[in-house]
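Recall the central idea of this unit: under ordinary conditions, the amino acid sequence of a chain determines the structure it adopts. In this exercise we apply that idea directly, starting from the sequence alone.
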Amino acid sequence: MRFTYSASSRDGNIVQGTLVAKSLAQAQDQLHQQGLFIIALAVSPDQTKIRFKLLARFLTQNSKIRFLIRFVHQLSTLSYAGLPFLTCIQIMADEENHPLYRETLTQLKHDVASGDSLATALAKHEYLFPQLVVQMTTTAEAAGKLEEIYSKLGNLYKHELAIRRKITATIFYPLLVLTLAIVGGIAISKIVLPQVEDLVAYSSTSWPLPTKILLYLGQPRGWYVLIITLSFLIPLVLILMYTSLGSKVLDYLKFHLPVLGPITLRYHWSRVCYCLGLSLDCGIPLLIALDIAEQAALSRSLAAAIRQIKAGTQAGLNLSYQLRTIKSVPLFLIPLVHVGEETAQLAIMLQRAAVILYKELEHSLDMVVTWLEPLLIVIAGGIVGFIIMGLMMPLFTLVDSLG
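Accordingly, the structure predicted from this sequence is:
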């Protein structure tokens, strides 16, 4: 631990500085041995940890998940090969290219070498290692099954990364097409249309509506309107993202949109079922497993529902009975959980439910992509046609006026 101190020397001078010690008593002994009289002594803020937290904010979620996959798979494989534990972490740190991951692994090795358990050391880096990893590491260390449990944990994060990549690929394609079409329209309004405008300036005919719209997009006041609109929309989005009322509105929209709502529900419940089932399968008690599932939930409304389930579980209610009170729960999940409770195979049933939801999610995403491609062709064709009309109609009007 690092301490900051203010002390007085024997000649009365005030001395300030920092020192490293394992405890407050050891820090006091070090100062006394230097002949200093302690005025103030306190644990200093961990600047390294603060810096790591700030750097972690700039990492994408997919990058963190890929790091977790590498961490659990490499550590389980190297441990299975019989290498010393500290050597395993050092090998992983040497192979890391990202400075944040490399420094975190180096600090992790230092903590373990100082006497901390792996779970305790991981808990100090919560910006990279979620509660699920910490709790499962605690269970793995107690049961001596680090390789087995980390292998299952790696499969969980592989499953989540595959879902995220598929969703990203589904969203990226239509956004790219629409963005290119809009940029093309703005470019034409800035480059081509002014020349047409100069050509038709001497004509007394009025501009067609498509041409007026394209000219408006190319004028500075069009950009002013866009900037003003964004200045209102950005605070609104921040309010929706970081307030409880806004999160409720976003959750309602995400879960009730005609096409995206069912897909979002399957994704969230697949993640929760997989985390909960894996936690129970590794021997974690149900109440702690519910805490892990709550932290893993990406929706505030879903996290609130899990808190409600935890309260009911503490009161002695069955999990299947409580799921009936949650409207967003997939209907097939309730009988599966009921059978799991009756046969003492709840962990297996939850993992099977997660697999079913994942397959349904894949099928839904494939259907969305199948329907999006022709729809995007129609939309892009409409935008191109609108641009052509805006370019050609004033020329036709000019020819008619000259004739």
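The first helix runs from residue 24 to 33.
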